[in-house]
Amino acid sequence: MNITQDLSIIELIIHASLVVKLVMALLTLVSLTSWYWIFRKAFAIRDARTRTDKFERDFWSGGDLNALYQSAVNDRHHSGALERIFEAGYREFTKLRGQKTIDPTAVVDGARRGMRATYQREIDDLEAHLAFLASVGSVSPYVGLFGTVWGIMHAFRGLANMSTATLSAVAPGIAEALVATAIGLFAAIPAVIAYNRFAHDVDRLAVRFESFMEEFSNILQRQMR
């Protein structure tokens, strides 16, 4: 078999040492898992952004708050994150407002706490599995590098049994070791790009949610006067 055949990707993987094969298999599994979560988070964040836009249009169109609340309650399975935040705050507001002995400031503070708790749950849900993508992006190159170092060590150990070291003898072993680094980079680069993008999108949604909570709290404060 000539060097060109030995250096084909499939041949390199087949003839790699057991440790390098395990590293390649692990990195391939991690890469496939990260791509799964990349697509899942992309759709989830896009859906959250679309539903947030829709609810903000409905809310600031001047509609009745009771009607918006009933709509959120009746269609809870299809409501967005911002709609659930509004629902939690308005539910707490109506419950506390019915108690005549409670100070108006305490009523608004209770609504704000209800919104804050729901806000935290929604942000946690949007951020789920982002830590996995960050870990893939930071660890995969080192795992691939470990496979490469091991493969190169294995290749040079094989030279000990040869009387003459030639390029044709050492090149396949070094090349198969470098495949591990390539797979590690293939797993890491998309994960890093996706993590940075999704983290930015979640931060922007978080700012919109916090702005809404403050503005809605001001509306409730005026209603208590």
TrEMBL record:
What's in the GO CC field? plasma membrane
State the compartments where it is located: Cell inner membrane; Cell membrane
What membrane topology was assigned to this protein in its record? Multi-pass membrane protein
**Does the entry feature the keyword Repressor, yes or no?**
no
Ranges for domain MotA/TolQ/ExbB proton channel come to 82-210
Q: Tell me, what is an example of a GO biological process annotation in this record?
A: bacteriocin transport
Q: Which residues cross the membrane?
A: 12-39, 130-153, 173-195
**What InterPro entries does this protein map onto?**
ExbB/TolQ_transport, MotA_ExbB_proton_chnl, Tol-Pal_TolQ
Which keywords does this chain's UniProt record carry? Answer: Cell cycle, Cell division, Cell inner membrane, Cell membrane, Membrane, Transmembrane, Transmembrane helix
Lineage top rank: taxon: Bacteria
Does the record's keyword annotation contain DNA-binding? no
Subunit structure comment from the entry: The Tol-Pal system is composed of five core proteins: the inner membrane proteins TolA, TolQ and TolR, the periplasmic protein TolB and the outer membrane protein Pal. They form a network linking the inner and outer membranes and the peptidoglycan layer.
- HAMAP family xref list: TolQ (MF_02202)
What is its biological role? Part of the Tol-Pal system, which plays a role in outer membrane invagination during cell division and is important for maintaining outer membrane integrity.
The family note in this entry says: Belongs to the ExbB/TolQ family.
Extract the PANTHER family matched here: PROTEIN TOLQ, TOL-PAL SYSTEM PROTEIN TOLQ
Q: What is this protein called?
A: Tol-Pal system protein TolQ
Native source organism of the sequence: Sulfuritalea hydrogenivorans sk43H
